[in-house]
Design brief:
By secondary structure, the protein is mainly beta. The chain is 6% helix and 56% strand. The chain has five helices and 34 strands. The strands form five sheets. It has a 22-stranded antiparallel beta barrel. A five-stranded mixed β-sheet has the order 1-6-7-4-5. A hairpin with a 2-residue loop joins strand 9 and strand 10. The radius of gyration is 24 Å and the shape is globular.
Length: 627
């Protein structure tokens, strides 16, 4: 309850501050403030990267990030029914994907595993998925891939707002509201969301005799979030920014098809605050310094028939200094220091569960006429012990560039690492404080082709290989208890293909076609495919837009996923199709949009993770207004 109250207070404070300003329209041309330090992703060359901009994310206003990743990326999303969603990139585990928000790694220090059902797509202006290891840039956890979330302030002058609501099956209600204000040297952005559902969806119980249609029990959820960002330009070349992300979710944990009904319930509450100061030291050469501080607080409380009042709370303090300069005009250089302190306030961990980390990083870029290289290195000291030295070498080369076509060759090789989660190290009586960091080695290369005119066409092909050593696995011991050890390794090779074509029929009508295919052969020491990593996944999207109406159909395929380490059991392959229709009405100074979304339109009975049922067909209708 206190977290929900803080959501409302935060929203009211921002809204009051915005409305207290002079909101009169103006056509006065303002002097440009030149503050543009190179973001960290500019040094991540050669990787297969998928970016979702604000326009695309608008189509997922009421969806969580796992829906976006399922339909728009080649990553393997693991849905445990409607209760939990994790990610596997290129055969890696769910803890091998780093999560950055506004430049700060927000990966949970206790579990190390992000839950993408807690991230609402409408909360961000830009989402980038970088496939492949890159710890030299992003730090611990970036072994399989990296998700970069950005909550920027709108660049539109004046005051703008949007309100929306969605209602669907299983008493699902979702609301969102956003506000932005931008004038002179001050700007702010505020996004709010709330959702509530009984969520007793229908599914086919394949574990019961006759496979009857049933309704899931103990699966209700509710919660909300607020993300606010304030920018203040101190001078022409200096800027201060502060962002806050407050979230609270309460959900019942549905049992599997094989388990008896339980009353398991989980509360997730988090607070993330990032403040940064940026100053241009040389506007001609684009030199800058950037200092960030962050506070991260993740609180999880779990109760069930067998577990009472399990409290898992972790806090982190982060301070980072970054200097962007250049040895020569075509040789950008980024270097800096990062200090991170992880603390545990969990009643399941030993009292001394904390960790202090100091890292130094350097990234050097070499820009030639047709080829760009990047060398990144990072060394981290954790509680007085050095972690594996990480580095990466990347390149992008233009093979052909004309008015009609562009062909590029790219590649990357990297050494990455992942620190053990605090749960692995310090869980009472079961943790292993002697665990070593997991290590990864990866290499990839690919081609990008772009047809620039007539009917624009983009194609990307990537081949990769990587290995993960010292992987941490919890296994039963002789005393019957489960404990973690560095006993596993994973070797993976794969192929990723992506194609997108835009067909313009006339000034008011266009067709967009997009498809992706991924082959992932990820094996353990014994030669078995890694559990819940499908060898084949594919997505296809058809979007038809005429005037102010748009129809989008998405289809997702996944081959069977093994559910045991020896590959003796598995979840069956599936194909699921979704559809989304929207129509926009324009008024004098506002836009009104209505939409209809159908998930699993063919009523497919499937499980992403064995015995965790997924919903059958669900329908929802939404309305939004922007002004």
């Amino acid at each position: 309850m206190p977290r929900l109250i803080s959501l409302s207070v935060f929203s009211c404070c921002f809204s009051y501050f915005a409305t207290a300003q002079n909101l009169r329209d103006t056509s006065r041309i303002l002097n440009t403030v030149n503050i543009s330090a190179a973001p960290i992703t500019q040094f991540a060359l050669g990787h297969n990267t998928i970016t979702f901009d604000e326009v695309m994310l608008k189509n997922y206003q009421f969806q969580t990030l796992d829906n976006v990743l399922t339909e728009q990326s080649s990553a393997a999303v693991r849905n445990y029914g409607s209760s939990l969603s994790t990610l596997s990139v290129r055969g890696s585990s769910s803890s091998h994907t780093a999560i950055l928000w506004n430049g700060i790694n927000i990966q949970n220090s206790l579990s190390g595993t992000p839950d993408f059902t807690l991230y609402n797509a409408s909360a961000f202006n830009n989402v980038s998925v970088q496939l492949g290891g890159e710890s030299a840039l992003y730090g611990s956890g970036a072994m399989g891939g990296t998700i970069v979330l950005q909550s920027d302030v709108s660049k539109h002058e004046g005051f703008h707002a949007n309100f929306g609501a969605q209602y669907g099956n299983w008493n699902t209600t979702k609301l969102n509201a956003g506000f932005s204000f931008n004038k002179n040297n001050f700007s702010l952005q505020l996004n709010n969301g709330y959702q509530n559902a009984t969520n007793n969806f229908a599914f086919r119980n394949t574990a019961a005799y006759g496979a009857p249609i049933e309704n899931i029990s103990n699966a209700a959820y509710c919660g909300g979030y607020t993300i606010g960002t304030i920018n203040y330009d101190l001078s022409r070349d200096a800027k201060f920014c502060i962002s806050a992300w407050i979230q609270n979710n309460s959900r019942e944990i549905a049992p599997t098809m094989l388990a008896a009904t339980d009353s398991a319930k989980q509360n997730d509450a988090s607070m993330r605050v990032v403040a940064s100061f940026q100053k241009m030291t040389d506007t001609l050469l684009n030199h800058s310094i950037n200092f960030k501080v962050a506070y991260l607080d993740d609180d999880l409380q779990y109760n069930s028939l067998g577990v009472h009042d399990s409290k898992n709370r972790g806090t982190s303090y982060v301070a980072e200094f970054e200097n962007n300069t250049s040895l020569l005009k075509n040789m950008p250089l980024r270097w800096g220091l990062n200090y991170t302190q992880n603390n545990s306030l969990s009643n399941n961990l030993v009292a001394s569960a904390e960790r202090k980390r100091i890292a130094i990083f350097v990234a050097q870029k070499f820009i030639a006429r047709k080829t760009t290289w990047s060398i990144n290195v990072r060394e981290e000291n954790v509680d007085g012990n050095l972690t594996p030295f990480t580095s990466s070498l990347q390149f992008e080369q233009t093979l052909h560039n004309s008015e009609k076509n562009l062909l590029q060759w790219r590649g990357a090789a990297a050494r990455s690492f992942n620190l053990p989660a605090l749960n692995d190290l310090y869980w009472q009586q079961l943790g292993n404080p002697n665990l070593l960091p997991e290590q990864g080695y990866s290499i990839e290369t690919g081609l990008n082709y772009t047809q620039k005119i007539i009917a624009p066409f983009n194609f990307k092909a990537t081949v990769y290989a990587h290995t993960i050593k010292n992987q941490i696995v919890w296994l039963p011991q002789l005393d019957g208890n489960w404990r973690p050890n560095n006993i596993a390794s994973v070797n993976a090779v794969g192929l990723e293909l992506q194609a997108e074509k835009k067909i313009v029929l006339n000034a008011a009508t266009e067709i967009n076609l997009k498809t992706q295919y991924t082959f992932t052969h990820a094996t353990t020491d014994e030669g078995y495919q890694v559990i819940y990593v499908p060898q084949h996944t594919a997505t296809a999207q058809f979007k038809f837009q005429i005037h102010k109406s748009a129809m989008t159909i998405n289809s997702n395929f996944a081959s069977r996923r093994f559910s045991t380490r020896d590959n003796s059991t598995w979840a069956e392959k599936y194909v699921v199709a979704n559809a989304h229709f929207s129509h926009t009405f324009n008024f004098s100074k506002s836009t009104f949009e209505v939409s209809l979304r159908a998930q699993n339109i063919f009523n497919t009975d499937y499980q992403v993770v064995a015995y965790y049922p997924m919903p059958r067909r669900t329908l929802s209708v939404a309305a939004q207004i922007f002004f």
